[in-house]
Amino acid sequence: MMSHRLQQLLDLYRTNKLTEDQHGELASLLENDEAAEQFAHLIGQQLSGGEWSLAGDLLTTEDRIVQGIIKKIQPAPVVPVRHTGFFRKWGWAAAAIVIIGAATYFLLVNTNVRPSLAGDNRYAQNDIGPGGDKAVLTLSDGTTIGLDSAGNGAIAQQGNVSIVKLANGRISYQLTSTAAGAAMMNTMRTPRGGQYQLTLPDGTQVWLNAASSITYPTVFAEKERQVKISGEVYFEVAKNREKPFIATVEGLSSVEVLGTRFNVNSYINEGPVKTTLLEGSVKVRSMAPGSGLPGTPPPATILTPRQQAQVSGQRLSVADNADIDKVMAWKNGLFNFNDASLEEVMRQLARWYDVEVVYEKGIPDIRFEGEISRNMKLSDLLKVLARAEVKFRMEGRRLVVLP
User: Fold this and answer.
1) Both 123 and 9 in a single domain?
2) Where are the alpha helices (DSSP H) in 15-147?
3) Cα separations in angstroms, 67 against 6, 37, 89, 94
4) Cα 30 to Cα 16: distance, rounded to the nearest angstrom
5) What burial class does residue 4 get, using C-beta atoms within 10 Å of its C-beta: 0-12 exposed, 13-18 middle, 19+ buried?
6) Which listed residue, 4, 90, 232, 386, has the most CB atoms within 10 A of its CB?
7) Residues 269 and 279 in one domain
C-alpha cells in the first residue's frame, strides 16, 4: 500500500503536478526508513529501465541522482548534519550531477532527452583526463622542481632547511641545524589541471587549487608569518599567538589570522576576491590604492564562521551564511554547480581539464544545480551536462560550446 502511494507521488512529482499538500505528504513519508528505501528503489527502477541506461563510471551516479531528488523535496539545511531515514541509508557522499536545469529535472522528467550514454563517443575523441597532483616548486635561486615527477626523499637544501618529498607526495621543510640563517623565499605553483597540498615550515596546512600559487619563507623568522597567494588556496593555519599569519592576495587584499581555517578565491575571471571563513576568526583588509582616506588605514572587517568577505577594488563587503559546500567542493574532489551559470561551469572545467573554452555563438543562458566528481574524464562529464541540452564539440584541447 505504501509503495503504491509512493509511486503515485513520484509520478506526480516527475510531471510537476505535485500539490503543496502532496509535497508535504511525501516529505513526511520519507522520514520513515522503510518508505525512504522503497522510494529510492522506485527511482532506481526509473533510472535503469526503459530506453535510458547509465554506462561506465556514470553507473555510480544513480544513488546521487536519487539523493538529489530527495534534497529537492526536503531541502538540505545550511549546515551539513546527520539525517535519519533516507539520508542515513544513502548519505551525503556527493559525486555526481543530481539536478540539471533551473527547475527541470532533465535526468528524469524531459522525455525528449533520453539518449543512451553507452557507446556515445561524440565527446570521447581526444578525451582528456581529470587534473591531478601537479606542482612546480621554485627555490630562492630560481631553480624549479617538478614535484609530480620528483622522487621521494630530500629534493633541495635551502640554508639550514632541507626540503623533503614524503611518501604521500607532499613536501616537508625540516631544520638541519639550529644555527640562525636567513630565510629564503620559495614559491609553489600549480598549473591548469593541477592541485597540490603542502605543509608550511610552521605546520600550517595549505591546499592549492588549479592555476594557483603561494610564496613563503623557508623559516618564519619574523614577527609575522607572511605569505603571498594567487588563484584559490585553502588554509588550516597552525596556532601561534605570538606570530600572526598574514596572507596577501596579489596586492588586492590581506587576511590576518592567529589559527583558523579559511578559503581564498582570487581568480581574476571570478570577480571579487572572496575570503570564506570556516573556523575561528580572520581580519580581511582591502589593499587597493585609495581604499582609505588620506592618513587612514584601508577598510577592514573581522569575519565569523560562515561569513564571506568580498573585495573588489576599494570596496569591501560581507555576506552571511556562505555556501560552505560550494566553496569547499574543489578541495573535497567535487565540482559544485549549485545555481551556477554555464559560463561559471565552463571556467571551472577550463582550469581543471586545462582546456580552452570557446562559445561558437554567444553564451547560452542555462543554470545548473548539483555536484559531480572532479575525477571523471571530460567526455563523461560532458555527457552529463548535455542532458541540459548543451552541445559541445572537442577540437584537441579546445572545447567549443555550440548554440
Assistant:
1) yes
2) 20-29, 33-48, 62-73, 86-90
3) 16, 11, 10, 9
4) 19
5) exposed
6) 232
7) yes
Characterize 21-34 residue by residue with b for buried, 16 or more Cβ atoms within 10 angstroms of its Cβ, and e for exposed.
Answer: eeeeebeebbeeee
Q: How far is CA 65 from the centre of its chain?
A: 19
Question: Do 280 and 259 meet the contact criterion of CB atoms below 8 Å apart?
Answer: yes
Signed CA dihedral, 141, 147, 150, 151: sign only: positive
pLDDT digit string (tens) for 184-241?
Answer: 899 999 999 999 999 999 999 999 999 999 999 999 988 999 999 999 999 999 999 8
| C-alpha–C-alpha distance, residues 131 and 24, integer Å | 42
Question: How far lies 388's CA from each of 70, 150, 300, in Å?
Answer: 20, 42, 42
Domain ranges, residue 260: 223-322
User: 8 and 58: one domain?
Assistant: yes
pLDDT of residue 112: 33
Give yes or no: residues 297 and 393 share one domain: no
* Sequence-separated (6 or more) residues with CB below 8 Å from residue 263: 232, 233, 234, 235, 274, 275, 276, 278, 327, 328, 331
Identify the CATH number of the domain in which residue 103 sits.
Answer: 3.55.50.30
- The number of folded domains in the chain is 3
Q: Report CA-CA distances (Å) from 92 to 159, 289, 346, 376.
A: 47, 44, 25, 19
318 CB-side CA count, 13 A: 15
Residues making up the chain, counted from first to last:
403
Place of cell 596572507: 247
Regarding whether 350 and 279 lie in a shared domain, the answer is: no
- In this structure, are 334 and 369 located in the same domain? yes
Shared-domain flag, residues 92 and 154: no
What is the per-residue pLDDT across 301-313, written as a single tens digit (0 to 9) for each? Answer: 999 999 999 998 8
Evaluate if residue 172 carries a pLDDT over 70. Answer: yes
